[in-house]
Amino acid sequence: MDETLPTIVAEYLRADGARDTDAVVATFTPDAEVLDEGQTYHGHDGVRAWRAGPAAAFDYTVTVLDAVARGEDVLALDVRLDGNFPGGTARVAFRFTLRDGLIAKLEVVPPET
Fold it and tell me: What global pTM score does this model have?
């Protein structure tokens, strides 16, 4: 894991890689939002539903290709997903908004070009 990532983002990536839903949820604020595949999930219950649904549909690994701070509380990760989904490989951006040492928002979006 890249030691330069904020601790909570590294914890999220570890928990996601371990498929540990409880640990993933614990990285988010109680009022967090996750935006993925055109859907928005709210709060811990929403994060749990996202992890149990779209985020669990396939087995995959995440490779961080680049990390760029966008101000004090926003971090954009360019990542490669490798897995058993159609095509087998995809590039996406994880945009994290941090607050009080936790993730307040995660957007899974096309990578910035």
Answer: 0.90
